[in-house]
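Lecture notes, unit on protein representations.

Consider one protein chain, 128 amino acids long.
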Amino acid sequence: MCLTRQAGGGIRMAMLVYKIFRAGEWAELCDTGSTVGAAVDRQDGFVHLSTGAQVAETVAKHFADETGLAILALETDDLGDALKWEPSRGGDLFPHLYRVLEIDDILWQTDLPLGPEGHEFPDGVLPE
């Protein structure tokens, strides 16, 4: 998490949130420049995101043993009022994006390989 200056002189917290996509979902975003998300996102009416503290459990629950995954990082400040924090698994507040996900929303993307012990997250994603 980092502090950022807000218009009008205030300071607010900024943080990264993450989206996991299968190869085809990532390719669609790259090809079209925007997406309403994966099938579950379309069904629920918002793009499911996770914090660094939540993303490993999200992957274990919804993507166990899958290969060809991509992890995308987004900055909460860039998502504006379309980002809502809502209770989900175990009452935790999860970030949900109530608009189309644009390619310009993505700070970075990388593969999320499946190793012998499970998915291998890039340095800095999971809390220590």
